[in-house]
Design goal:
This protein has ten helices and 15 strands. The longest helix has 20 residues, at 320-339. A nine-stranded mixed sheet has the order 14-13-12-11-7-10-9-8-15. A six-stranded parallel sheet has the order 3-2-1-4-5-6, with helices on both faces. It is of the alpha/beta class. It has helices at 17-26, 41-51, 60-64, 81-90, 105-118, 132-142, 180-183, 186-196, 298-312, 320-339; strands spanning 6-11, 31-37, 55-57, 71-74, 94-97, 122-124, 149-157, 200-208, 219-226, 231-237, 245-253, 256-261, 266-269, 272-273, 343-344. Helices cover 32% and strands 24% of the residues. A hairpin with a 4-residue loop joins strand 12 and strand 13 (266-269). The protein binds nicotinamide-adenine-dinucleotide. The site of nicotinamide-adenine-dinucleotide has 23 residues, from loops.
Length: 348
């Protein structure tokens, strides 16, 4: 039986767009890059030329009007994701959205509702969940091999030079990006929440811009309380070290511990080390950080998964509802800091 080839379009042709173009090509006969769109015409033309797309346009309606396009990858600034998702859904296109789903609750609600109403799939990118190593760690936690989770923490000490915030005018703005936790740290926050598998019910915290001249945070600290009573702690900063320092995620249960980050991941169950090194994709380096545990072909995985989700009429690996959980917690941390209060999240 010949299987359908899905026509693909990309909206937003900046830094991350080539990953989506490559992931379309990686799916061989199942996917074809038909068109790309950017408000800056040269960017669209360059991406189209590089990856052999027939159409390069600055007009979104032209892209969405193509009947041979089935799927749209959303690679515009974070605060524009929902707008593009809604327009794609209204045009009957399935969507693969970059992280974060969007940066306000209302816009995330609207994106999820628009795809639901249109009956199209909404798949969301969080590459770290595609790693088989992380999936095995999650299985162990969810099947109770570490006992009851007592506490979990996340520390990210990365570095973004002042020039980074000048590479695009949306970076570091409250309207379109927010700061280090929403942009860089959302990957770690998503991984932490997905591994723990418990909803966060209360948060407190502080954010500030201590080192960079941006509207949003370059440093944030927070406390979390999970639905099962476990406690959590978050520290994320993108200005603290010129080299960037190793970050980590720790999850600690009554019967064992997981620490991702540092020189090697550490997994201990009932006092015994658990060796999952065979599940770590080789990266040509000795140090294995939480970042490197992301599957190297994460975007390929997400594109293939979306194709199969459409074929099989099932949910994508990461749905809109699942992708928004990290954003909801991050927004609650901002609110807690802004109002100097403990913020409750709705219990599902
Ligand atoms: N998954 C990951 O690891 C990863 C990595 C980097 C970026 N991202 C995400 O990808 C998104 C884009 O980030 P980036 O670094 O590529 O940004 P970028 O600024 O390099 O690219 C965004 C592009 O979108 C274009 N654009 C803006 N408004 C548009 C519109 N209305 N219609 C069409 N094009 C428009 C801009 O001209 C620009 O070329 C962000 O949400 C970011 O969080 C994800």
């Amino acid at each position: 039986m010949t299987r359908k080839t899905y026509g693909w379009g990309i909206v937003g042709c900046g830094v991350i767009a080539p990953n989506h173009a490559k992931s379309v090509l990686a799916n061989g006969e199942r996917a074809q890059l038909i068109g790309v769109c950017d408000v800056i015409g040269e960017r669209a033309e360059k991406l189209a030329e590089q990856f052999g797309a027939e159409l390069a346009t600055t007009n979104l309606d032209e892209l969405l009007g193509r009947e041979d396009i089935d799927v749209i990858s959303v690679c515009v600034p974070s605060g524009l994701h929902s707008e593009i998702i809604q327009r794609a859904a209204q045009a009957g296109k399935h969507v693969l959205s970059e992280k974060p789903l969007d940066i306000t609750r209302q816009k995330m609600d609207a994106a999820i509702e628009a795809t639901r109403q249109a009956g199209v799939k909404l798949g969301c990118v969080f590459q770290r969940r595609t790693s088989v190593f992380n999936q095995e760690v999650r299985r162990m936690i969810h099947e109770g091999e570490l006992g009851r989770v007592l506490y979990a923490d996340l520390s990210g000490k990365e570095y973004r030079a002042p020039e980074y915030y000048l590479t695009a005018d949306w970076r570091g703005t409250i309207a379109l990006d927010r700061g280090c936790l929403m942009n860089q740290g959302v990957h770690a926050m998503d991984l932490l929440l997905w591994l723990v598998g418990q909803p966060v019910v209360e948060v407190a915290g502080f954010w500030d811009h201590l080192a960079r001249d941006i509207e949003a945070e370059d440093t944030i600290v927070g406390s979390l309380r999970f639905a099962n009573g476990a406690l959590g702690q978050v520290l994320f900063a993108t200005s603290s070290s010129r080299k960037g320092l190793p970050g980590h995620i720790g999850i600690h249960g009554t019967e064992g511990n997981v620490i991702l980050g540092g020189a090697q991941p550490l997994i201990e169950r009932n006092g015994q080390d658990v060796d999952l090194s065979h599940l770590i994709a080789p990266r040509g380096t000795d140090a294995v950080t939480a970042d490197q545990l992301a599957a190297p072909q994460g975007h390929d995985f997400h594109a293939r998964d979306l194709i199969e989700a459409i074929d099989e009429d099932r949910d994508p690996f990461i749905t809109g509802e699942s992708a928004r959980t990290a954003v909801d917690v991050i927004l609650a941390l901002y609110e807690a800091s802004d109002t100097r209060s403990v913020v409750k999240l709705p219990t599902p």
